[in-house]
C-alpha cells in the first residue's frame, strides 16, 4: 500500500471532473437514444445518468466527512465517504448495470428491433469517448499524486483508503470500455444489418457495470469495517518508538477512521530509569508520529505497561 500524501481536496478533483463530463455526455446519449432506438445507446444513457447521481452522492459524502467532532461522533464523520461510496456502488452502479442487462435481454429476444440514424449514434459515441477519456485522465493524475510508492495500478486501487478515487477511476474506466463496446455494437449492426450486435453490446455493458459494482462492494466493505494503516505508515509509526527510553513496544494497533484520519493505540514498556519522564516521552513520540504522517489527521493514545511474555491478549 502506498503512503498517501493528502489534503482536504485530494480525490475530489476527479469527482468534479467526472460530474461535468457525465452531464455533458448523458445529454448527448439520451438524444441519440431517442433518435436511434439503440439498445447499447440506451444502456450508455442509463450509465451516464447513474454516473451523474454517483458524483452528486460522493460530493455530499465529502461534505459530511468534513463535519467536525461532536459529542455523538467524537472522531468526526470522515468515514461518511465510505458509506456514500458503498451506496454508489450497490444502489446506483449495480442498479444501472442490472437495468441495462434487463433491457439488453429483451432486445436479444426481439433481434429485429431497428436502429436508425446510426451515423449520429456513432458520432455521439465518439464524442462521449473523447470526453470520458479526458475525465479518466484527471483520475489517473490524482492516482499518480497519491501513489507515492509507484505501486502497480491495480495494487494501488486494492490498497487505497481513498474510496472516492477508487470509485471514480472504476466508473470512468467502465465508461470508456462501455463506449467502445457500444461503438463496436453499432458499427457491426450497421455492417451486418443485424441488430443482434447492438443488443449484445448492451448486454456486455450491463454485465461490466455489475462486475465493477461487486469489486467496489468488496473494497468498501473492508473500509467500512475498518482497515489498518498501510504497511509503510505502520513502519513509520513504529520507528517513532525506537528510542533508548523504550524497552519494548508491547502492542500497536491502527485503524483508518477515514481516508486521511488514523487512530493509533499503543502500549509500551518504558525503561525503569526513565519512568519519571514518561509524560514527556509520550508527548515526544506523538510529535514524531505526526511528523512522519504528513497529510494525515492522527489520533494517538499511548499507555505504559510492563511486558509479560506469558500474557495472552484476547483477540
Automatic annotation (TrEMBL):
- Location of the Cation efflux protein transmembrane domain: 15-225
State any GO BP term from the record: zinc ion transport
Where is this protein chiefly located?
A: membrane
Q: Which GO terms describe its cellular component?
A: membrane
One GO MF term, please? monoatomic cation transmembrane transporter activity
Which chain regions cross the lipid bilayer?
12-35, 82-102, 122-140, 165-188, 200-221
Q: Per UniProt, which keywords does this protein have?
A: Membrane, Transmembrane, Transmembrane helix, Transport
Q: Kindly give the membrane topology term recorded for this protein.
A: Multi-pass membrane protein
Q: Name one Pfam family in it.
A: Cation_efflux
Subcellular location(s): the record lists: Membrane
Q: Could you tell me which SUPFAM superfamilies the record lists for this protein?
A: Cation efflux protein transmembrane domain-like
Task: List the PANTHER family hit by this protein, alphabetically.
Answer: HUEL-CATION TRANSPORTER (PTHR13414), PROTON-COUPLED ZINC ANTIPORTER SLC30A9, MITOCHONDRIAL (PTHR13414:SF9)
Q: What is this protein called?
A: Cation transporter
Q: Which organism is it from?
A: Pseudolactococcus hodotermopsidis
